[in-house]
Design a protein that fits this description.
By secondary structure, this protein is an alpha+beta fold. Among the domains are: 7-32 and 68-123, no CATH class; 137-186, no CATH class. The chain contains six helices and six strands, in the order ααβββαααβαββ. The structure holds zinc ion. Zinc ion is lined by residues 35, 37-38, 40, 54, 56, 58, 61.
């Protein structure tokens, strides 16, 4: 499979749904496709629907390449997601939401959302969400750092800490997938939506 070399090539390449499916599949399952539900490699491909079906009987045994990825529950079509991902990973000097918006013919707001999500994904395990069937995820938060009142009143950090509602500490959230990976990061506020 030849990689697209320019944005024009990338847009053309990803306008073919079979290319999109193959592009993700070879990255997601380098050792062959496995069922996201039970992990079995006894799966059969339906080329018309571009889905696989697990030979074991269980709920959601038919799955697409999007299941369990950041692309799963998005109204943005896969060709735009992949072209944007291609832009993020191939433009060495960074890329703005305006450029992505123009290039992919989406609004700047949509482009901003896509870039945000793609960059987050690329910092961790590319494209994959934590959890899934039969997998438990624990989330906990903690507070680290000194007290805001000990900082200079003009300190930007102090103002930021006060804005979190936890006087003087930086909130950090950790997410653990049982028998899986751990992710942790500073969070701007402790509101439910952010968590
Ligand atoms: Zn299965």
């Amino acid at each position: 499979m030849s990689e697209p070399r320019s944005l024009q090539q990338a847009i053309l390449y990803f306008s073919n749904p079979d290319n999109c499916t193959q592009y993700i599949a070879v990255r997601r399952w380098p050792d062959g496709v496995t069922c996201p539900g039970c992990g079995s490699d006894h799966v059969s491909y339906n080329a018309t629907r571009r889905t696989w079906k697990c030979s074991t009987h269980h709920p959601k045994r038919e799955f697409s390449v999007k299941v369990g990825t950041i692309f799963e529950d998005s109204p943005i079509p896969l060709d735009k997601w992949l072209a944007a991902t291609w832009m993020v990973t191939n433009c060495k000097n960074g890329i703005s939401s305006y450029e992505v918006g123009r290039g992919l013919k989406v609004t700047q707001r949509t482009a901003w959302f896509m870039l945000h999500r793609i960059r987050l994904a690329l910092q961790g395990n590319p494209m994959m969400k934590l959890g899934g069937p039969g997998s438990e995820v624990e989330v906990d938060e903690t507070f680290i750092g000194g007290k805001a009142r000990n900082m200079h009143a003009s300190s930007a950090r102090r103002r930021r800490l006060d804005a979190t509602g936890v006087k003087g500490k930086t909130p950090v959230v950790g997410i653990l997938e049982r028998d899986g990976e751990v992710r942790a990061g500073v969070i701007p506020t402790r509101r439910r939506g952010v968590l």
